[in-house]
Write a structure and sequence with these properties.
Elements: H1 7-25, H2 39-57, H3 72-95, H4 99-114, H5 123-126, H6 136-142, E1 150-153, E2 157-160, H7 161-173, H8 185-202, H9 204-213, H10 217-233
Antiparallel strand pairs: 1-2
Helix pairs in contact: 1-7, 3-4, 3-8, 6-7, 9-10
């Protein structure tokens, strides 16, 4: 039975995403390299996230990731989850008026969905069609929405007010939500969670160094997230404000 996209549902989701963009645009302009008015709450969330990470991954002294990389099953899960994200990247590429990126990600999705057995195998990268990742947070950036305050989210970790709105917008706009039957939605969500856990396991030594090797892991994670996110978005306004040798917990 063919699954139909419900126009009304799609319209409501688009309206929600547009509303989020308008709401985020009303936020005050960025106030410097690090704007963290919610630091007390953020630190509490960070401690809870770190405790959960310790519970799941063993904390300091845990076995390092296998240098040979993830096994076939785990790699297949990550590939499949990444392929299911491609239509959302295409949608964001269109919203950003980056038609070349949208076309590139469309070709990648078609190649991996066919030659890659639904995306379990990443054939496209081997053919010279790597992913060009993007999200609705980047779309809001392209539209001129300010970054807003830094926030740390339960389970998801470092973010900003703009990227939080982007997460909600990505959920609302994801074309796969209108294609995957409702009864398969839990499996769709579980696949994404499994892929994130796999990514965390692969970055084990790096993440462990931040969480357990820093005197102030919250400040270190905040600094690295903001630097990396701004670099990926091409936001160079605060480059000179960050000292790579600065002690983030000096104060």
């Amino acid at each position: 039975m063919q699954t139909r996209i419900r126009p009304r549902a799609a319209g409501r989701c688009l309206a929600l995403a547009t509303g989020l963009a308008a709401l985020a645009a009303c936020a005050p302009a960025d106030r410097g390299a690090i704007w963290d008015p919610y630091e007390e709450q953020n630190r509490a969330v960070h401690e809870a996230n770190r405790a959960l990470d310790t519970l799941v991954f063993g904390g300091p002294g845990a076995a390092p990731a296998d240098p040979s990389g993830p096994g076939p099953l785990r790699r297949g899960i990550v590939n499949l989850a990444g392929n299911l994200d491609q239509p959302l990247m295409v949608a964001n590429g269109l919203l950003q008026f980056r038609l070349d990126d949208a076309a590139h990600n469309t070709v990648r999705f078609l190649v991996n969905s066919t030659l890659g057995l639904g995306g379990v195998m990443d054939v496209a990268t081997g053919l010279g069609i790597p992913a060009r990742p993007t999200d609705f947070g980047e779309t809001l950036h392209v539209w001129g929405v300010p970054e807003g305050a830094y926030v740390e989210l339960p389970l998801l970790g470092p973010s900003t007010e703009r990227d939080l709105a982007g997460l909600i917008g990505d959920y609302a706009l994801n074309p796969m939500r209108f294609v995957v039957p409702g009864r398969l939605s839990p499996a769709f969500t579980g696949l994404g969670v499994a892929a994130r856990l796999s990514d965390r396991a692969e970055a084990g030594e790096f993440i462990a160094d931040i969480l357990y090797g820093s005197a102030d892991s919250y400040a270190q994670a905040r600094l690295l997230y903001l630097q990396n996110r701004r670099f990926r978005l091409g936001d160079t306004r605060y480059v000179d404000d960050f000292d790579p040798y600065e002690d983030p917990y000096e104060d």
